[in-house]
Design a protein that fits this description.
Order of helices and strands: EHEHHHEHEHHEHEHEHHHEEEHEH
Shape: globular
Structural class: alpha/beta
CATH topology of the largest domain: Rossmann fold
CATH class of the largest domain: Alpha Beta
Mean pLDDT: 92
Strand order of the largest sheet: 3-2-1-4-5-6-11
Helix content: 40-55%
Number of strands: 11
CATH architecture of the largest domain: 3-Layer(aba) Sandwich
Distance between the termini: 16 Å
Strand content: 15-25%
Number of domains: 2
CATH superfamily of the largest domain: NAD(P)-binding Rossmann-like Domain
Length: about 400
């Protein structure tokens, strides 16, 4: 069983780290640290081997993967000398990267652009003789999309596109192309992506699954563990504030308040949803160029104990965003392959374990089947994977 992994943002830090990591693990050069699906809990699950993943993708950037890998070596993300050991894998993946699109689309309307994107994916599948292709969006975060009548139903969206109207944000254009090509789609960013009623309808009609959104790799991962602790111990949280310092391309993108709004919204969900009541405090994101591919998060939690005793918790999380995200990309590719092979269509809410803003069973945020507690999400994931 050979599975294609088509990455939107294929020459970015996360994508490059995933390609290097998959090749290195498959060759026995490094252990699969951080890969959930490589743990004993998933032994015997019908997942494609890491060595059977074939990479390609879309990107608007021009630098090849080998150069990006060397930049990641200099940043301390990838071990020195490792890119040279997987040169052939990097070259093979780079040869399968095709030009992406921006919105507004250059000289083409969105219907034409989407058809070209879908054709690229279908050609990749045929050229490499793949059983299926999983499309994963790891591109830069975009501002939240405004509501548009065409987003409400597939017929309305199809009519708008056929009329030459540009109605989709870039992430949703890629999602539309992936679903049209009959491919599972994953939103790893907080961008709109497949989170539109029209695209949910398209996924169900085409019989393909989708999942997302916004990968849970750092501060929110800790929140999804700590918030249930406060709830289960009946401790009243009064305020929860966080400051995030980000470098790299993601940090530069989130320096734009419009793009940061989408990220902050997904990062703020878990506390209130888990505790069941509003909590004071805000999440802040600041761009610090010198941090490169690294990030630091500092959180301050104020809570009440017995007899109203006021107490606090503070924690600091420092990590490499690409190294935290890349193994999850490999997990999601394998699990979405499993979902598609088992006939799943529409949202795969059982993959909520991986996301800050997981899709519900009805395709909405916070819909049926969504629980933000990490332990509960993990139990659901294990049970689902074992039953396929």
């Amino acid at each position: 069983m050979t599975t294609g992994v088509w990455l939107v943002g294929a020459r970015g830090s996360v994508a490059t780290t995933a390609v290097v990591g998959a090749a290195a693990v498959a060759a026995g050069l490094t252990p699969p640290t951080g890969c959930v699906t490589e743990s004993p809990d998933f032994a015997g699950t019908r997942l494609p081997d890491l060595g059977d993943l074939v990479f390609g993708g879309h990107d608007v950037a021009g630098a090849d993967l080998a150069k990006r890998a060397e930049q990641l070596v200099r940043s301390g993300v990838v071990p020195a000398g490792l890119p040279e050991l997987v040169t052939d894998d990097l070259a093979a993946a780079d040869a399968e990267i095709r030009p992406g699109v921006r919105v507004p689309v250059d000289a083409r309307d969105q219907a034409t652009a989407a058809a070209a994107l879908a054709s690229d994916i279908a050609a990749f599948r045929e050229r490499r003789g793949l059983d299926r292709v999983v499309v994963i969006n790891v591109a830069s975060t975009e501002p939240p999309a405004g509501e548009h009548p065409a987003h409400g139903s597939l017929d309305a969206l199809s009519a708008a596109l056929a009329s030459g109207n540009d109605v989709l944000p870039a992430s949703s254009l890629y999602a539309y192309a992936a679903l049209t090509a009959g491919c599972p789609y994953v939103d790893f960013t907080p961008s709109t992506g497949a989170r539109l009623p029209a695209l949910d309808e398209l996924a169900r009609r085409r019989g393909v699954p989708y999942a997302g959104r916004d990968g849970k790799t750092g501060e929110t991962l800790l929140k999804s563990v700590l918030a249930p602790m406060f709830a289960q111990r009946a401790l009243r949280v009064r305020a929860w504030s966080g400051t995030n310092l980000l470098g790299g391309g993601d940090g530069a993108t989130l320096a734009d308040p419009a793009a940061a709004a989408a990220k902050n919204a997904s990062k703020s969900l878990v506390v209130g949803e888990t505790l069941g009541y509003p909590v004071d405090g805000q999440v802040h994101i600041d761009y610090v160029a010198d941090l490169g591919d690294w990030k630091t998060a500092w959180d301050h939690v104020v809570f009440d104990g017995f007899l109203g005793a006021r107490m606090s918790l503070q924690f600091t999380w420092q990590g490499c965003d690409s190294a935290l995200a890349a193994p999850l990309i490999l997990d999601l590719a394998r699990l979405m392959d499993l979902a598609h092979a088992s006939g799943r269509a529409g949202p795969v809410n059982e993959l909520a374990f991986f996301f800050k803003d997981p899709v519900g069973a009805d395709g909405t945020t916070g819909g049926p089947g969504v629980d933000h507690a990490l332990a509960t999400q993990y139990a659901t994931l294990r049970s689902w994977a074992a039953s396929r």
